[in-house]
């Protein structure tokens, strides 16, 4: 089924400070939408709007035709610092959404083990979180999001805390997981390379307050999925040019003193 | 790296300090001139320990006194946890709960046990109940305050995660806030056990026939100083064991503490 999250002319303030103003954003099933922006540009706020954690001060946030008024099972969230529960083992963390739903214990544990296999953590169910690396914990967070078979996955800088090598592995792993079900993905990052690599649609957020500075359709993710090595994709001159173009956008917007690059 | 060397050094210094104090005690009493009524020798105190352990003192063996005191303290702990954790939850998560309970707890907290003891005896009589209640009152505030702080300061992203996956209010409370606060609650229990144990002597002031506190008071009335000191040492040793016990409980129940 083709579904759509649509933000239309959305504005958001923190106290008196306007963060977002007149932002339009669409995420449809099968789309991998990456929002790239500087620190403090309100890109996480954008995700929190889509997740239903906060309400817009102006404009429209809709799922299909209904206004989003709170979190929902069709929109799963993956958090920057995994937001897992250390008192549960890996399996019970992944099964947590099913527990809230009231599924039987055996069923949800079996489902969790299957989902762990799907994210490359076969046999890790009984581990405790502190026995995992940062990358493995993010896979657990991803498995927990995917176990409810959501129509949308909302990811808030999920790889920001990882080292470069692990991050590169996780990017490809994420694309492979996504390619199986083609959920609609809203992915937030400040890493332009990551954004270019993953996005089927790249949204550049810039300005103060932020608005959408540019939207670019991309096919690097499809090339990676088709088997092109990531190194070759990155070496593509067009990739480099796009990188510069996005960087320029962000720098122009960040020209005011005190803003992060 | 030096993680194991440093505590070992500290431990050695602590052991040496204790040994030095006992040595000084032994030396001071050994040269004579100090009436054992004021300070008996370590040997006399140790001898009293074995005498009380086997033949007993004040119509009960040391173990029976100890058992009576431990029974009261753990009964009080059960009461304090059963009431204190829900009270802490209410204070930490609800403005109404905070409004009602916070002033009560804060009023109760600084009152010394000897001050409310008469009132408890007037209300509940001289039986076992009033002794347990006196200790439980001393334990209540630390548990309430630790629980309230723990459930109020759960990492925001954990709460977001719970909400994102559809947790209702009571599910957030039981499945996320309470386990998140478990390390704080155990800290509260640790402080409460210390506070309760300190209250023991006061609790056993009125109409007790057994208990470490009773044993000390009884000995004090007859100026049996070696029993008084022996009782004090036993109370200190038990407090030390409580501390070790709760720390073991923390390692078992909250193994993630300090790791994540």
How would you characterize the overall build of this protein?
Chain A is of the alpha/beta class and 261 residues long. Chain A has 2 domains: 1-74 and 151-261, Rossmann fold (3-Layer(aba) Sandwich); 83-149. Chain A is 39% helix and 25% strand. Chain A has helices at 43-51, 90-101, 105-118, 134-146, 164-181, 192-198, 220-225, 230-235, 237-253; strands spanning 4-14, 17-28, 32-37, 58-63, 66-67, 75-78, 152-156, 184-189, 201-206, 211-217. In chain A, the strands form 2 sheets. Chain A has a 6-stranded mixed sheet with strand order 6-7-8-3-9-10, sandwiched between helices. The longest helix of chain A has 18 residues, at 164-181. The N and C termini of chain A lie far apart (40 Å). Mean pLDDT of chain A is 88; it is low at 257-261. With 260 residues, chain B is an all-alpha fold. In chain B, 78% of the residues lie in helices and 0% in strands. Chain B is built from 11 helices and no strands. Chain B is globular. The A-B interface holds A 51, 53, 70-73, 75-77, 79-81, 83-87, 96-97, 99-101, 128-130, 144, 148 and B 155, 157-158, 160-168, 171, 175-176, 179-180, 182, 254-256, 259-260.
What key phrases describe this protein's structure?
heterodimer; A: 261 residues; alpha/beta; Rossmann fold; 6-stranded mixed beta sheet; 4-stranded antiparallel beta sheet; 39% helix; B: 260 residues; mainly alpha; MetI-like fold; 2 domains; globular
Write the layout of secondary structure elements.
The complex is a heterodimer of chains A (261) and B (260).
Chain A: E1 4-14, E2 17-28, E3 32-37, H1 43-51, E4 58-63, E5 66-67, E6 75-78, H2 90-101, H3 105-118, H4 134-146, E7 152-156, H5 164-181, E8 184-189, H6 192-198, E9 201-206, E10 211-217, H7 220-225, H8 230-235, H9 237-253
Parallel strand pairs in A: 3-8, 3-9, 6-7, 7-8
Antiparallel strand pairs in A: 1-2, 1-4, 4-5, 9-10
Chain B: H1 5-30, H2 42-54, H3 62-93, H4 95-108, H5 113-124, H6 128-152, H7 156-164, H8 169-198, H9 200-203, H10 212-221, H11 225-253
Helix pairs in contact in B: 2-11, 3-4, 3-6, 3-8, 3-10, 5-6, 6-8, 7-8, 8-11, 10-11
């Amino acid at each position: 089924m083709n579904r759509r999250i649509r933000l239309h002319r959305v504005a958001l303030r923190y106290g008196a400070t306007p963060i977002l103003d007149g932002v339009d954003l669409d995420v449809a099933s099968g789309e991998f939408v990456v929002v790239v922006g500087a620190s403090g540009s309100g890109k996480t706020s954008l995700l929190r709007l889509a997740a239903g954690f906060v309400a817009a001060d102006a404009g429209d946030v809709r799922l299909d035709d209904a206004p989003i008024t709170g979190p929902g099972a069709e929109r799963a969230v993956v958090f920057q610092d995994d937001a897992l529960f250390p008192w549960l083992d890996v399996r019970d963390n992944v099964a947590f959404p099913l527990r809230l739903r009231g599924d039987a214990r055996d069923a949800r544990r079996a489902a969790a083990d299957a989902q762990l296999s799907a994210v490359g953590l076969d046999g890790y169910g009984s581990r405790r979180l502190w026995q995992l690396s940062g990358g493995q914990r993010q896979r657990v967070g991803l498995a927990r999001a995917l176990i409810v078979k959501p129509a949308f996955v909302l990811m808030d800088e999920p790889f920001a805390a990882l080292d470069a090598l692990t991050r590169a592995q996780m990017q490809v792993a994420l694309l492979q997981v996504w390619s199986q079900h083609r959920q609609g993905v809203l992915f937030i990052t400040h890493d332009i390379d990551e954004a270019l690599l993953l996005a089927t649609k790249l949204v550049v957020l810039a300005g103060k307050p932020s608005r959408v500075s540019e939207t670019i359709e991309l096919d690097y993710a499809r090339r990676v999925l088709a088997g092109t090595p990531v190194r070759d994709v990155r070496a593509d001159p067009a990739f480099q040019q796009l990188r510069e173009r996005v960087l320029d956008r962000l720098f122009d917007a960040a020209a005011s003193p005190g803003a992060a690059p | 790296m030096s993680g194991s060397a440093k505590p070992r050094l500290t431990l050695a210094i602590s052991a040496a300090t204790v040994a030095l104090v006992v040595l000084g005690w032994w030396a001071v009493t050994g040269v004579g001139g100090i009436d054992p009524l004021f300070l008996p020798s370590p040997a006399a105190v140790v001898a009293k320990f074995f005498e009380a352990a086997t033949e007993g003192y004040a119509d009960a063996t040391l173990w029976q006194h100890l058992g009576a005191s431990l029974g009261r303290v753990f009964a009080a702990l059960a009461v304090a946890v059963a009431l204190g954790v829900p009270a802490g939850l209410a204070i930490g998560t609800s403005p109404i709960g905070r409004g009602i309970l916070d002033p009560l707890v804060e009023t109760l907290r600084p009152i010394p046990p000897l001050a409310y003891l008469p009132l408890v005896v007037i209300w509940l009589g001289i039986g076992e109940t009033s002794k347990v209640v006196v200790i439980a009152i001393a334990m209540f505030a630390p548990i309430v305050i630790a629980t309230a702080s723990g459930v109020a300061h759960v990492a925001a992203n954990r709460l977001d995660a719970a909400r994102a996956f559809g947790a209702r209010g009571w599910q957030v409370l039981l499945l996320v806030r309470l386990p998140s606060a478990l390390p704080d609650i155990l800290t509260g229990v640790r402080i409460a056990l210390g506070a309760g144990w300190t209250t023991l002597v006061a609790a056993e002031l009125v109409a007790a026939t057994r208990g470490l506190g009773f044993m000390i008071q009884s000995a004090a009335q007859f100026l049996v100083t070696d029993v008084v000191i022996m009782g004090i040492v036993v109370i200190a040793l038990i407090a030390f064991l409580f501390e070790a016990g709760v720390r073991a409980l923390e390692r078992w129940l909250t193994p993630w503490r300090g790791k994540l």
